[in-house]
């Protein structure tokens, strides 16, 4: 399976021949995000022992070459272990699927041998950039023309202004598009629009190529065209129809406990005590498991409350605090106007 489509691969080769610079974005680090048994009757998928998420495979030279030359990491609690060579359930050889910046970097080296790692190509993500100095050094080398190609995560999407960039490629624009968060389309538009704006910032023309499984999605189609006004019109109409911000104000209450039964009971009790405080213009959703239902061994259930005005939500919150219902701390997180819902 190739991560670079024919159109993008051809454009990379042409840009390198013309001595132009390239930015490639994939907002997912690591090598593969799906580690599983190839036998469908077995069905084993490697997940974090402490979170309800799949683990991510990272290649590592210090751990040796070959299929087991790397480690598996959870990108939420950062637990690590060696990549197993065989399935723990049936003993078959384990396989890795999916994509990440490491795998893009490997494919680029194989297809474009003129890109010498650490010389004319750099990977920019939180695995390679250990601090701001590393990041600024990489950008300085890119600005001087010593580095021809940067491949990385959203770290390279914002604020870069290099006149030599002739090509911008988005490897997979769908990484955040279908997340269970009403801001997912907004974030996708923002990321694609920003990175596409990194090219053609001089008298020379630039080209942006977006690889996606959803070419007709407004967030991607309009971001590629830099049509913010039309995207905002579509998104605002959808938000208004569903009663979501900015047409309402929201508070998200997350209950956490290592014991699942206690977590569920606490969430139900909190919701039952909050309902009598609602007026007719307010809505309460839940309790329900969070999209990531367990993080760092703690089960998570959420309650979402929306109100048409900030003053109405503030009065509700004041009553709930005064009644001792809302007690922010280790067991309860109260997030007013939440930025993310995962």
In short:
This protein has helices spanning 6-17, 101-111, 132-144, 184-196, 218-224, 228-242, 260-274, 310-322; strands at 21-25, 34-36, 56-59, 70-73, 80-82, 95-97, 121-124, 149-152, 165-170, 207-210, 249-257, 283-295, 298-307, 332-336. With 342 residues, the chain is an alpha/beta fold.
Describe this structure in words.
By secondary structure, this protein is of the alpha/beta class. Helices cover 29% and strands 23% of the residues. It is built from 8 helices and 14 strands. The chain has helices at 6-17, 101-111, 132-144, 184-196, 218-224, 228-242, 260-274, 310-322; strands at residues 21-25, 34-36, 56-59, 70-73, 80-82, 95-97, 121-124, 149-152, 165-170, 207-210, 249-257, 283-295, 298-307, 332-336. The strands form 4 sheets. A 5-stranded parallel β-sheet has the order 7-8-1-9-10, sandwiched between helices. A 4-stranded antiparallel β-sheet has the order 12-13-11-14. Helix 3 (132-144) links the parallel strand 7 and strand 8 (149-152). Helix 4 runs parallel beside helix 5 and helix 5 runs antiparallel to helix 6. The two termini are 30 Å apart. The mean pLDDT is 88.
């Amino acid at each position: 399976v190739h991560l670079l489509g024919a159109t993008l691969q051809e454009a990379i080769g042409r840009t390198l021949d013309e001595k132009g610079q390239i930015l490639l974005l994939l907002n997912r680090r690591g090598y593969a995000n799906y580690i599983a048994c190839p036998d469908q009757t077995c069905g084993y998928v490697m997940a974090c022992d402490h979170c309800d998420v799949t683990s991510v495979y990272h290649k590592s030279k210090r751990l040796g070459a070959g299929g087991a030359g790397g480690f598996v990491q959870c990108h939420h609690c950062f637990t690590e272990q060696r990549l197993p060579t065989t399935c723990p359930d049936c003993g078959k050889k384990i396989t890795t699927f999916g994509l990440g910046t490491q795998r893009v970097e490997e494919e680029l080296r194989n297809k474009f041998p003129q890109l010498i790692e650490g010389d004319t190509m750099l990977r920019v993500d939180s695995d390679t950039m250990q601090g701001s100095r590393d990041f600024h050094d990489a950008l300085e080398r890119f600005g001087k023309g010593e580095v021809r190609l940067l491949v990385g995560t959203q770290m390279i999407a914002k604020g870069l202004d290099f006149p030599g960039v002739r090509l911008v490629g988005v490897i997979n624009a769908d990484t955040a598009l279908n997340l269970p968060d009403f801001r997912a389309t907004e974030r996708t538009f923002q990321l694609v629009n920003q990175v596409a704006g990194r090219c053609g910032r001089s008298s020379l023309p630039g080209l942006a190529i977006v690889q996606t499984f959803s070419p007709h999605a407004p967030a991607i189609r309009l971001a590629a065209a830099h049509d913010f006004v039309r995207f905002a019109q579509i998104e605002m109409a959808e938000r208004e129809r569903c009663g979501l911000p900015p047409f309402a104000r929201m508070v998200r209450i997350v209950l956490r406990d290592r014991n699942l039964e206690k977590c569920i009971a606490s969430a139900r009790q909190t919701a039952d005590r909050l309902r009598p405080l609602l007026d007719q213009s307010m809505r309460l959703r839940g309790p329900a498991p969070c999209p990531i239902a367990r993080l760092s061994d703690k089960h998570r259930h959420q309650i979402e409350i929306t109100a048409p005005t900030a003053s109405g939500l503030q009065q509700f919150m004041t009553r709930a605090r005064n009644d001792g219902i809302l007690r922010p701390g280790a067991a309860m997180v109260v997030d007013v106007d939440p930025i993310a819902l995962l």
